[in-house]
């Protein structure tokens, strides 16, 4: 990702605004704060605002990068595995889903679509149902295990309707089309 110019607002633990700054063109910033705990809000036009807690220790320099996410940004995951012909998530997928949950926790207003996709083996109708069940299984995992608000997650099955590889000729081609995508569709409770 290229560096962005961001507006940053720092707050104390009571929610009082301490200072506002704008980062440099290269994305770097510097702010002098007394020792303590602060909340920082980072905003860039057309990106989802970020919030973080910053702990300032006396005499130490803090370095904090912010990964700004755009609406309509798609993240594709092929390492979310399911039992064959089922919507049961395999345990080796949990670390990937746990990292997605962390991103959602760090971006509490983000609303995402969880898109389930299949390869072309099986009937279209069957693949549609299977992809929907798998998208719902991912949503349920994020809600049940990580406490993500279900209103922020929209499960949608696409079946075989949006292949990445067409036509599928090898097992690798089939595998590329079996995936789960996360599409950032907006923010909840944030006026545009």
TrEMBL record:
Location in the cell: Cell outer membrane
Gene3D superfamilies: Carboxypeptidase-like, regulatory domain (2.60.40.1120), OmpA-like domain (3.30.1330.60)
Keywords: Cell outer membrane, Membrane
Cited InterPro entries: Bact_OuterMem_StrucFunc, CarboxyPept-like_regulatory, OMP_bac, OmpA-like, OMPA-like_CS, OmpA-like_sf
One GO location term (cellular component): cell outer membrane
Residues of the OmpA-like domain: 69-188
Top-rank lineage group of the source organism: Bacteria
PANTHER family recorded: LIPOPROTEIN YIAD-RELATED, STATOR ELEMENT OF FLAGELLAR MOTOR COMPLEX
Protein name as it appears in the record: OmpA-like domain-containing protein
Organism: candidate division WOR-3 bacterium
